[in-house]
Design a protein that fits this description.
Number of helices: 13
Shape: elongated
Number of strands: 5
Strand content: 5-15%
CATH architecture of the largest domain: 2-Layer Sandwich
Oligomer: single chain
CATH class of the largest domain: Alpha Beta
Strand order of the largest sheet: 3-2-1-4-5
Length: 373
């Protein structure tokens, strides 16, 4: 669209703009009026930009969109009468609201965002602030938007936890002194996806890099275990987790332990009577406790004893740190296929390539790790 010709404004429009220019106290509104008036005088956009000291983009926008008959269009949204700054009462209600659960106010979402807070407070107070304004208020009040810690303590049975911890410490004491007689292993299941989440990317300042929205589909499920004494890890790749597959993987797991025992110079036929007893610590997934599976385990794997974690107590399961470290290692990596992902997971879990800081705390896992190292 070609720019308007010189003197495209009517005398009435010029008078109206000049009157508003004198009376209006908002600098951005006066600047936009001057852009229209200078354009009417025949100035080019480049000349207007240089004269007013504003960006060419701003001049181009208001040359095209400034309406001399609708002066309200020259205002920002916050200039309208329904917009007001935050009052002390607004801030007080904001701080009370952010500390409440959204569900207590009838919302189905689980966490407050700045946008949700702004929407709720507009309805509650009639004061319309943007999400960025709400965010600035919270920042001034020393609030920050950080990961919350899952609170499992209210759902835990403290008596069961104390009994389990006492029992676990007995197991560990014996296993550390007599590793040929007793081994303590921690068991769990986890999943790894081809879908990669990129939170940040390098780019030139002032420019946001576009990332394709295409998502790769595919998932690898793993059943695995870790031995407390030497941090030996094993991972079994499965299609899905259920009781039958759980039994199959335990049978494979037993064969690995048996072969390890034979490699130390022992006779295979002596394993059941003289081999180590295995304490397997695991969670309360329903397929771990199916009665027919437990009966078969007692018959086919007599060296095994399952000991189940107290409810809502993942902090006692050492393998949680393995999953966490493994997922952290593969974050931001792009895999072309399931096979490629599985090869890396095999190296990390079964060939010892995954380096783990055993003294770190796992974020978002409820309690800190309780296993003595």
């Amino acid at each position: 669209m070609p720019p308007p010709a010189k003197n495209f404004l009517t005398p009435e429009q010029v008078i109206g703009l000049q009157k508003t220019l004198k009376e209006n106290e908002l600098s951005h509104v006066r600047e936009r009026i001057l852009i229209i008036l200078l354009q009417n005088d025949g100035r080019t956009q480049q000349e207007i930009s240089k004269f007013l000291g504003c960006s060419p983009r701003t001049v181009a926008y208001w040359c095209m969109n400034g309406d001399p008959d609708k002066l309200e269009t020259l205002h920002n949204r916050r200039d309208y009468e329904h917009y007001r700054k935050a009052t002390p009462e607004y801030i007080e209600l904001l701080l009370k609201t952010v500390d409440k659960s959204p569900s207590s106010l009838g919302y189905e979402f689980g966490r407050w965002t700045a946008e949700r807070l702004a929407t709720y407070l507009t309805m509650a107070t009639g004061i319309e602030l943007s999400s960025s304004q709400v965010r600035r208020i919270l920042k001034r009040k020393k609030y920050s938007y950080i990961w919350a810690k899952y609170d499992l303590e209210s759902q835990q049975n403290l008596v069961e936890r104390a009994l389990f911890e006492e029992r676990l410490n007995r197991y560990l004491a014996v296993a550390r002194e007599y590793p040929e007689l007793l081994q303590v292993w921690f068991w769990d299941e986890s999943g790894f996806s081809l879908q990669v989440i990129r939170r940040k990317n390098w780019g030139q300042k002032g420019q946001r890099k576009n990332i394709t929205g295409q998502r790769r589909r595919g998932r690898i499920n793993v059943m695995g275990a870790i031995r407390e004494s030497d941090r030996k890890r094993v991972g079994f790749f499965i299609k899905k987790g259920n009781a039958d597959i759980f039994l199959e993987q335990l049978q494979q797991f037993n064969e690995l332990i048996k072969q390890e025992w034979v490699n130390k110079g022992n006779r295979l036929e002596d394993f059941q009577s003289h081999g180590p007893r295995i304490i397997l610590i695991l969670d309360n997934a329903s397929f771990h406790k199916r009665q027919d599976i437990l009966s078969r385990l007692s018959q086919e794997l007599p060296n095994f004893r399952l000991d189940f974690l107290p409810v809502y107590s993942p902090d006692y399961n050492m393998i949680e740190l393995v999953w966490h470290s493994c997922k952290e290692y593969i974050a931001h990596r792009l895999f072309q296929s399931i096979d490629e992902l599985q090869l890396l997971l095999d190296r990390l879990l079964n060939q010892g390539e995954l380096v783990i800081n055993w003294h770190r705390k796992i974020k978002n896992k409820g309690n800190n790790h309780h296993i003595a190292t």
